[in-house]
Design brief:
Elements (H helix, E strand, L loop, with lengths): L9 E2 L2 H6 L3 E2 L12 E7 L8 H11 E13 L4 H10 L14 H11 L2 E14 L2 H10 L14 H13 L7 E13 L18 H8 L1
Parallel strand pairs: 1-2, 3-4
Antiparallel strand pairs: 4-6, 5-6
């Protein structure tokens, strides 16, 4: 770390914050003054925020001009296999057991809405293969990524048994079932006069069609 750098650690979980010598804060209710930081990094939590547009607006507000915001969280089609087998296991009375996921296009739109300059949103898909559904659920508990919705209904043993069987039926020949994790990455800058600006609409002097024809 560069000499003179000050790092403020914050986490929505009180125990996680204490372990890292930080403060417990909610992302959509930040206690920081405007222009407090040159860099804000959010790792693995924005998908669980109740008011994500508000959280992004507050993060942008806490940055100094030309300050950088970096974030990564699971979104898109994450846990699509688990979501499907739980839905099939409760076919008669399906229950929402996984919170809604943010796709990369919506994430980019939210960056623009929050007022970030030069916004970028990209996604990376990872596939993790599990020997059974219980190892997957154990990983989710370890990540603090289990059901966070306020109206939760306990998962009955017979439902879990059906879900485990359906999960196993989706296994590859080696007996492992693939699960999907989409990691959404966000980059945005607090606006500043020194930043590059897009050219005015209609000011271009080259034709994209002509350039493509030359390369063909």
């Amino acid at each position: 770390m560069q000499a003179g750098t000050t790092v403020t650690r914050a986490d929505p979980g009180q125990k996680f914050a204490a372990l890292n010598g930080g403060s417990q804060v909610d992302e959509d209710c930040l206690p920081f003054a405007p222009g407090s930081f040159d860099l804000v990094v959010s790792a693995g939590v924005l998908d669980t925020v109740g008011d994500l547009p508000g959280a992004l607006a507050q993060i942008k507000r806490s940055l100094r001009p030309d300050g950088l915001f970096l974030a990564a969280f699971t979104g898109g089609a994450t846990l699509s296999t688990l979501r499907q087998v739980l839905r099939d296991a409760e076919a008669e009375q399906p229950v929402a057991r996984i919170h809604p996921q943010i796709d990369v296009r919506s994430a980019g739109d939210l960056l623009v809405r929050a007022g970030f300059a030069l916004p970028v949103a990209v996604t990376e898909t990872l596939t993790v293969r599990y020997g059974d559904i219980f190892r997957l659920l154990s990983d989710l508990r370890g990540m603090a990524a289990t059901n966070i919705m306020p109206a939760r209904r306990p998962l009955r043993r017979d439902t879990l048994a059906r879900a485990a069987r359906l999960f196993a039926e989706r296994a590859d020949p080696d007996g492992r079932t693939p699960e999907r994790f989409d990691i959404v990455y966000l980059t945005g800058w607090a606006p500043a006069p020194s930043q590059p600006k897009p050219a005015k609409r209609g000011s271009g002097t080259a034709s994209l069609a002509q350039l493509l024809d030359r390369q063909a």
